[in-house]
From TrEMBL, chain A:
The keyword Transmembrane applies. PROSITE patterns: ABC_TM1. It comes from the Bacteria. CDD domains: TM_PBP2. Pfam families: BPD_transp_1 (PF00528). The keyword NADP does not apply. It is found in: Cell membrane. It comes from Paenibacillus abyssi. GO terms for cellular component: plasma membrane. This is ABC transporter permease. InterPro entries: MetI-like (IPR000515), MetI-like_sf (IPR035906).
Automatic annotation (TrEMBL), chain B:
Residues 3-235 form the ABC transporter domain. Signal peptide: none annotated. One of its GO terms (molecular function) is ATP hydrolysis activity. The keyword Translocase does not apply. Keywords: ATP-binding, Nucleotide-binding, Transport. It comes from Paenibacillus abyssi. This is Nitrate ABC transporter ATP-binding protein. It comes from the Bacteria.
């Protein structure tokens, strides 16, 4: 009787299959190429869909004339200020609500009744209250950032292992130090989830606020060229927004890696 | 100095709102440089009792106090070693060990000296800058012990510190704990459900019963503090273990049925 060898193979090799480094580029490059070809062959009128090269050319022109930087500067000012304001107030309020039973009991019902309101619906009200300057735009962005951050901070605090708090107190920490040394770092991973969520909201509200009433800003620029039907320049605005969003996300990711080396 | 546990009773409300007595009229004292071990089946309230002594839970009745503390005025210092280890994951080993020293407000230089001294004592030299998640269970608990020792406590409290470790690490850690204890001679209250561990470490073993948690018996272990695992003490050692096991057995069987 002949003996045959039957080798055992790893049947779950697909679980840790390695993909080459160039793979992510294929999709984007292919899409851009297809887009360019469709435009070059004249299948779609440039009024509806300008070619990527045409958008880049228009973008370069707007950059050299200073138009782009002026609008970008105005938008950056609003979003950075609004985001920082909303995020810092959100983190502080979230820590307090999470730490103090009293603050939780009194504050949480208010918070949860305001949370579901789409912040964009408040824009006319805020314009009514604060006028059409920079203040209402920064305020609406701050509001939009505040809610996801405060809710995430709160649940992050609630998720901190209570034995860590007990350990800190048993080694002599007062309430302030418990918040500073245990609760804040312990909640930080969840806070970052909120900060990332808020980045998208802040971009949305920035554009909405600038479209309603603004002299400068990427949002008003897009609206302006839309009305004039200059689609190439409109697309430049959209491209800038997409890069702004990407930058915001990457920045937060960088900060997270920097602040959470222990994860 | 003595630590006195005076008539401590603890009652809870269970989910159905009934009163459950976890601990009933517990009286005992821990003398200076004495190693007291609380042993009992699961659910006898031994961890509850340790938490009350550690100031992490209020008793329903009774009190815990320090008698004849040398430094009048200041609160007694308690060093707790937790079952869950409870190192802050975002702090390095060194930063965890000096946590209590930091809160005492002593100088950075002194923190560094004391921190290093106790890190060396527990055998963590070279791991000062590691984060807890980079360490094995045994190494983590060494850091937990160093953190408790570093504040030079009036009472050291240990709540099943080695229960999360595998059997081999556990045996080694028990030996090391004894070595460390012989250098520091801190008054210690130690909780375990492991009877061999209790006989190996204790000056006195307090056996608790369950439902309600009461002191069943207090047994003084008349063996030399070191070398209890040597052949010459084996018969006596086993007798102590058997004596304690006979006291607990019935309760432990009940605990098993209730799950």
């Amino acid at each position: 009787m002949g003996e045959t060898k039957k080798y055992i193979k790893n049947r779950v090799a697909f679980l840790d299959l390695k993909v080459p480094g160039y793979a992510p580029v294929i999709g984007i490059a292919g899409l851009l190429l297809l887009w360019e070809i469709v435009c070059r062959l004249g299948w779609v009128a440039p009024l509806y869909l300008p070619a990527p090269t045409a958008i880049l050319a228009a973008g370069w022109e707007m950059l050299t004339k200073g138009e782009l930087l002026q609008n970008l500067g105005a938008s950056l000012y609003r979003i950075v200020l609004g985001y920082l304001l909303g995020a810092s107030v959100g983190i502080i309020v979230g820590l307090l609500l999470g730490f103090s039973r009293w603050a939780d009991a009194i504050g949480s019902p208010i918070l949860y009744s305001l949370y579901p309101i789409p912040k964009i619906a408040l824009l006319p009200l805020i314009v009514l209250w604060l006028g059409i300057g920079e203040l209402p735009k920064v305020t609406i962005i701050a509001l939009g950032v505040f809610f996801p951050v405060v809710i995430n901070t709160f649940s992050g605090v609630k998720n901190v292992d209570s034995v860590l708090i007990k350990a800190a107190v048993s080694f002599g920490s007062n309430h302030f130090n418990v918040i500073r040394k245990v609760i804040l770092p312990g909640a930080l991973p969840v806070i970052f989830a909120g900060l990332k969520l808020a980045a998208g909201t802040s971009l949305l509200l920035l554009v909405a606020a600038e479209m309603i009433a603004a002299q400068h800003g990427i949002g008003s620029m897009i609206l302006h060229y839309g009305n004039l039907m200059i689609t190439t320049k409109l697309m430049v605005g959209i491209l800038v927004l997409s890069m702004l969003g990407l930058l915001l996300n990457r920045g937060l990711q960088w900060l997270e890696n920097k602040l959470l080396p222990w994860k | 100095m003595r630590v006195v546990v005076d008539g401590v009773t603890k009652t809870f409300k269970d989910k159905k709102g009934r009163e459950v007595t976890a601990l009933s009229k517990i009286d005992f004292a821990i003398d200076r440089q004495e190693f007291v071990v609380l042993v009992g089946p699961s659910g006898c309230g031994k961890s509850t009792l340790l938490n009350i002594v550690g100031g992490l839970l209020s008793p329903s009745e009774g009190s815990v106090y320090f008698d004849g503390l040398s430094s009048a005025g200041s609160d007694p210092r308690l060093g707790i070693v937790f079952q869950e280890i409870a190192l802050l994951p975002w702090r390095t080993v060194f930063e965890n060990v000096i946590y209590g020293l930091e809160e005492m407000g002593i100088s950075k230089k002194e923190q560094k000296e004391k921190g290093q001294y106790y890190i060396d004592m527990v055998g963590l030299t070279g791991f000062e800058q590691a984060f807890p998640k980079q360490l094995s269970g045994g190494m983590k608990q060494r850091a937990g012990i160093a953190r408790a020792l570093a504040i030079e406590p009036d009472l050291l409290l240990m709540d099943e510190p080695f229960s999360a470790l595998d059997a081999q690490s556990r045996t080694l850690m028990q030996e090391e704990l004894l070595t460390i204890w012989n250098r520091t001679k801190l008054s210690t209250l130690y909780v375990t459900h492991n009877i061999q561990e209790a006989v190996y470490l204790a000056d006195r073993v307090i056996v608790l019963s369950r439902h309600p948690g009461k002191i069943k018996e207090i047994i003084r272990i008349d063996l030399p503090k070191t070398g209890r695992d040597q052949e010459e003490h084996r018969i006596q050692f086993d007798e102590y273990v058997k004596q304690i096991w006979d006291l607990i057995r019935h309760d432990a069987q009940d605990a098993l049925k209730e799950g």
